[in-house]
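Lab channel / #folding
Pinned by the channel admin:
"Please post every new chain as: sequence first, then the structure tokens as a reply. Keep commentary short and put observations after the output so the thread stays searchable."

First post following the new format, from NK:
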Amino acid sequence: MFKQPIDRRLLLKGAASLAVLAPLPAWASTGPTVTEVAFDPAIPALGNPDGDVTIAEFVDYQCPICKLVFLELKKLMAEDSGIRLVMKDWPIFGDVSRDAARVALLSGEHYAVAVDALMTNQRGLSERRTNTILSSAGVDVTMVRADLALRQPDVDASLFRTEAQATAFKLRGTPALVIGGSLYRRGMPVSELKQAVARARSA
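Reply from TO:
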């Protein structure tokens, strides 16, 4: 089971050795741009869609540290109305994670609650478990899965774009954050997030 006190210490330990890359625009022209990472048309924005700072989190719905980072991001958004959050689904834990990402992306007006339900789930996923979680959150899973049968190539194209970006960034796993024009290879607590947002605004 997901044990928050233990994993939170791991999150804080990771934050202490946080690695920050150069601003995205300074990278090679063949690499992903800020716009490509932060404004994929297939990925709805959480928080304030018109916010002045975009945070993109590379996530897997079965990654326990991703879940902790998401909780920290929720705290940040509760305090800062200028945050635009983009969940970059990178299902590195296999087909079950990929299935959850696909269904969430097709949840339409329920996307935000679908993400929240999956990120706050403390158990392992299966297709049946994903259906139960999302149904409990108000998602019409039968309709979404029927839609997925028709739109899977488009959804998978979005997942492929995210995977290609993660590969270009040489990420070793989830989570990772792009805040403004900088890449952070680890998750961080809300205090660190605030500092990163302040740097993004000052830039």
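NK: The chain has one domain: 4-202.
TO: also worth noting, Residues 141-168 form the longest helix (28 residues).
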